[in-house]
Design brief:
Radius of gyration: 18 Å
Number of domains: 1
Strand order of the largest sheet: 3-2-4-5-1-10-11-16-17
Oligomer: single chain
Low-confidence stretches: 269-273
Largest sheet: 9 strands, mixed
CATH class: Alpha Beta
Mean pLDDT: 96
Structural class: alpha/beta
Number of helices: 8
Helix content: 10-25%
């Protein structure tokens, strides 16, 4: 048991599983490399092959063990064999699918409580696509895509609660989701918005610093300086005014400190002549 929180790793979906596998390799590395024990939770997906597919991916990366916790019903979250497997794990991986399957299936269960507790003690937790959205306290349940925030554009729901600092959106550039992320932040401009492109991850360390890994970019939307938002008076579907947002685009190696809210480019970029 560690006295430091484990990593939290939201992934934007469609991460590379066949070529360089940079994101999955990095996750395995922080979990212990060849000694790592990974538990895969495929609850978000309705496809039976999703869990076994990730189990094979992690085994090809030569971890000590990879096991699917095939949670399909809330009752499965109380199965002692699954709880025991979680207690032995060094890392948990939440697959993609639909995030409401996670919130309705895991929310309020022993499994969810033990993931939160063990993450606070050093367990590393990653989630891709829907699994990424579910990791924070405030989760985007669903919403309309598009570049401009609008009234009623997004619906929030409780997430797993690993971090209260973020709201996360995924498939970000590919599905043009900047509008719905800003709409979510307009409800309460206290959180930081993280928009994850596909094959791109935010490795959030115990000191609350994000490092970008992957082939795409992360869009960081910081609403700390917001002076005005019209979300409270916007009719459904009508555009919303937001004044004072700060936005950063970070690529591989870039960092963002969630405490100081400072962004930095990657080391390789800053050392070029």
């Amino acid at each position: 048991m560690s006295d430091r929180r484990g990593y939290i790793v939201p992934i934007g979906g469609a991460e590379d599983k066949e070529a360089d596998r940079a994101i999955l390799k990095r996750f395995v590395s922080i979990c212990g490399g060849r000694e790592a024990r990974i538990a895969v939770i495929p609850t978000a997906s309705h496809l039976e092959e999703t869990g076994p597919d990730y189990e094979r991916v992690f085994r090809r990366l030569r971890v000590r063990s990879a096991r699917v916790l095939d949670i399909r019903r809330r009752a499965d979250c109380e199965r002692q064999e699954y709880i025991d497997a979680l207690e032995r794990a060094d890392g948990v991986f939440l697959t993609g699918g639909h995030q409401l399957r996670l919130s309705t299936g895991l929310g309020g269960t022993t499994m969810a409580e033990r993931i939160r507790q063990r993450n606070s003690e050093g367990l590393h937790v990653a989630g891709t696509s829907a699994g990424a959205s579910y990791m924070s306290t405030h989760m985007i349940a669903f919403g309309e895509d598009g570049p401009t925030p609008a009234g009623g554009q997004v619906t929030l729901a409780p997430g797993l609660g690993l971090t209260p600092r973020l709201v996360v959106d995924q498939h970000f550039r590919q599905r043009d989701r900047i509008g719905r992320l800003i709409a979510a932040l307009s409800y309460n401009p206290r959180l930081v918005g993280i928009g994850l492109d596909e094959d791109t991850a935010a490795f959030i360390d115990p000191d609350e610093k994000i490092e970008v890994v992957g082939s795409g970019a992360i869009t960081v939307v910081d609403p700390a300086g917001v002076e005005f938002t019209s979300m409270d008076s916007a009719d459904p579907g009508k555009p919303v005014s937001v004044i004072g947002l700060k936005l950063h685009i970070l690529i591989g190696g870039g960092t963002y400190d969630l405490v100081t809210r400072e962004a930095r480019p990657g080391v390789a970029l800053t050392t070029r002549g």
